[in-house]
Design brief:
The protein is mostly helical. The chain folds into two domains: about 55 residues; about 60 residues, no CATH class. The chain is flat.
Length: about 150
Protein backbone atom coordinates (compact mmCIF):
# COMPACT_ATOMS: atom_id res chain seq x y z
CA UNK A 1 0.00 0.00 0.00
CA UNK A 2 2.85 2.39 0.79
CA UNK A 3 4.55 1.35 -2.45
CA UNK A 4 1.39 2.30 -4.39
CA UNK A 5 1.40 5.75 -2.83
CA UNK A 6 5.11 6.31 -3.46
CA UNK A 7 4.85 5.19 -7.09
CA UNK A 8 1.71 7.27 -7.57
CA UNK A 9 3.42 10.33 -6.16
CA UNK A 10 6.38 9.67 -8.46
CA UNK A 11 4.03 9.52 -11.45
CA UNK A 12 2.39 12.81 -10.48
CA UNK A 13 5.79 14.47 -10.00
CA UNK A 14 6.96 13.12 -13.36
CA UNK A 15 3.81 14.45 -15.03
CA UNK A 16 4.50 18.05 -14.00
CA UNK A 17 7.63 18.67 -16.14
CA UNK A 18 6.21 16.53 -18.94
CA UNK A 19 3.03 18.59 -18.94
CA UNK A 20 4.97 21.85 -18.98
CA UNK A 21 7.15 20.63 -21.84
CA UNK A 22 4.20 19.50 -23.93
CA UNK A 23 2.41 22.79 -23.20
CA UNK A 24 5.50 24.58 -24.52
CA UNK A 25 5.19 22.72 -27.83
CA UNK A 26 1.74 24.22 -28.28
CA UNK A 27 -1.55 22.42 -27.72
CA UNK A 28 -3.50 23.87 -30.61
CA UNK A 29 -7.22 23.10 -30.56
CA UNK A 30 -9.29 19.91 -30.80
CA UNK A 31 -9.93 20.64 -34.50
CA UNK A 32 -6.31 21.50 -35.20
CA UNK A 33 -4.11 19.89 -32.56
CA UNK A 34 -0.59 21.18 -32.12
CA UNK A 35 2.53 19.07 -31.56
CA UNK A 36 2.04 19.12 -27.78
CA UNK A 37 -1.59 17.97 -27.84
CA UNK A 38 -1.13 14.18 -27.55
CA UNK A 39 1.83 14.36 -25.18
CA UNK A 40 -0.27 16.62 -22.96
CA UNK A 41 -3.17 14.14 -22.97
CA UNK A 42 -0.78 11.31 -22.08
CA UNK A 43 0.66 13.47 -19.31
CA UNK A 44 -2.82 14.12 -17.93
CA UNK A 45 -3.44 10.37 -17.92
CA UNK A 46 -0.18 9.73 -16.06
CA UNK A 47 -1.09 12.39 -13.49
CA UNK A 48 -4.64 11.09 -13.05
CA UNK A 49 -3.53 7.48 -12.61
CA UNK A 50 -0.76 8.54 -10.23
CA UNK A 51 -3.22 10.56 -8.17
CA UNK A 52 -5.57 7.57 -8.06
CA UNK A 53 -2.74 5.44 -6.66
CA UNK A 54 -1.96 8.07 -4.03
CA UNK A 55 -5.58 8.55 -2.99
CA UNK A 56 -6.84 4.97 -3.26
CA UNK A 57 -4.05 2.39 -3.14
CA UNK A 58 -5.05 -1.21 -3.80
CA UNK A 59 -5.39 -2.80 -0.37
CA UNK A 60 -6.00 -6.27 -1.79
CA UNK A 61 -2.75 -6.39 -3.79
CA UNK A 62 -0.05 -8.63 -2.44
CA UNK A 63 3.31 -8.98 -4.09
CA UNK A 64 3.90 -12.56 -5.22
CA UNK A 65 6.01 -14.35 -2.68
CA UNK A 66 7.91 -17.58 -3.01
CA UNK A 67 7.27 -17.86 -6.74
CA UNK A 68 10.95 -17.57 -7.60
CA UNK A 69 12.83 -14.95 -9.47
CA UNK A 70 11.43 -13.16 -12.53
CA UNK A 71 14.97 -12.56 -13.86
CA UNK A 72 14.60 -15.49 -16.24
CA UNK A 73 11.44 -14.01 -17.72
CA UNK A 74 13.16 -10.66 -18.08
CA UNK A 75 16.06 -12.31 -19.88
CA UNK A 76 13.68 -14.09 -22.26
CA UNK A 77 11.78 -10.86 -22.91
CA UNK A 78 14.98 -8.93 -23.68
CA UNK A 79 16.32 -11.74 -25.86
CA UNK A 80 13.11 -11.83 -27.93
CA UNK A 81 13.30 -8.07 -28.43
CA UNK A 82 16.88 -8.45 -29.66
CA UNK A 83 15.72 -11.26 -31.96
CA UNK A 84 12.95 -9.02 -33.27
CA UNK A 85 15.41 -6.28 -34.22
CA UNK A 86 17.74 -8.71 -35.98
CA UNK A 87 15.06 -10.81 -37.72
CA UNK A 88 12.63 -8.10 -38.83
CA UNK A 89 14.16 -7.51 -42.27
CA UNK A 90 14.98 -11.10 -43.25
CA UNK A 91 11.84 -12.78 -41.86
CA UNK A 92 9.41 -9.89 -42.24
CA UNK A 93 7.03 -8.18 -39.85
CA UNK A 94 4.25 -10.80 -39.65
CA UNK A 95 6.53 -13.78 -38.96
CA UNK A 96 8.85 -11.91 -36.58
CA UNK A 97 5.98 -10.33 -34.65
CA UNK A 98 4.15 -13.65 -34.41
CA UNK A 99 7.26 -15.38 -33.04
CA UNK A 100 7.96 -12.56 -30.58
CA UNK A 101 4.41 -12.63 -29.24
CA UNK A 102 4.34 -16.42 -29.06
CA UNK A 103 7.47 -16.45 -26.88
CA UNK A 104 6.19 -13.57 -24.75
CA UNK A 105 2.78 -15.16 -24.16
CA UNK A 106 4.03 -18.72 -23.66
CA UNK A 107 7.30 -18.43 -21.76
CA UNK A 108 7.25 -14.98 -20.21
CA UNK A 109 3.59 -14.91 -19.19
CA UNK A 110 3.03 -18.67 -18.91
CA UNK A 111 -0.13 -18.81 -21.02
CA UNK A 112 -1.33 -22.13 -22.51
CA UNK A 113 -0.03 -23.13 -25.95
CA UNK A 114 -3.35 -22.77 -27.73
CA UNK A 115 -4.01 -19.30 -26.30
CA UNK A 116 -0.46 -18.16 -26.99
CA UNK A 117 -0.45 -19.36 -30.59
CA UNK A 118 -3.90 -17.98 -31.40
CA UNK A 119 -3.23 -14.59 -29.80
CA UNK A 120 0.20 -14.28 -31.46
CA UNK A 121 -1.06 -15.12 -34.95
CA UNK A 122 -4.13 -12.89 -34.66
CA UNK A 123 -2.21 -9.92 -33.22
CA UNK A 124 0.52 -10.19 -35.88
CA UNK A 125 -2.01 -10.48 -38.72
CA UNK A 126 -4.31 -7.69 -37.51
CA UNK A 127 -1.45 -5.31 -36.81
CA UNK A 128 0.15 -6.05 -40.19
CA UNK A 129 -3.11 -5.35 -42.04
CA UNK A 130 -3.72 -2.22 -39.98
CA UNK A 131 -0.25 -0.80 -40.61
CA UNK A 132 -0.02 -1.89 -44.24
CA UNK A 133 -3.52 -1.19 -45.59
CA UNK A 134 -4.99 1.42 -43.28
CA UNK A 135 -1.95 3.47 -42.27
CA UNK A 136 0.13 2.74 -45.42
CA UNK A 137 3.28 1.93 -43.47
CA UNK A 138 5.65 -0.13 -45.66
CA UNK A 139 6.57 -2.98 -43.31
CA UNK A 140 8.94 -5.70 -44.51
CA UNK A 141 7.15 -8.85 -45.71
CA UNK A 142 10.22 -11.11 -45.59
CA UNK A 143 9.54 -14.78 -46.26
CA UNK A 144 5.76 -14.43 -46.37
CA UNK A 145 4.49 -14.64 -49.96
CA UNK A 146 1.98 -11.83 -50.44
CA UNK A 147 -0.09 -10.93 -53.49
CA UNK A 148 1.13 -8.09 -55.71
CA UNK A 149 0.17 -4.64 -54.53
CA UNK A 150 0.40 -5.53 -50.86
Amino acid sequence: MLLDRVLGLGAVLLAVPLGLASWGFGLGSPRSPGPGFWPFLVTLSIAALGAALVLRPDRAFRAPGGTGSRWGSLGIALATLGFFVLALEPLGYPVTTGLLLLVQFRWVEGRPWRTSLLAAVLAAAVSFVLFRLVLHVPLPTGVLPLPRGW
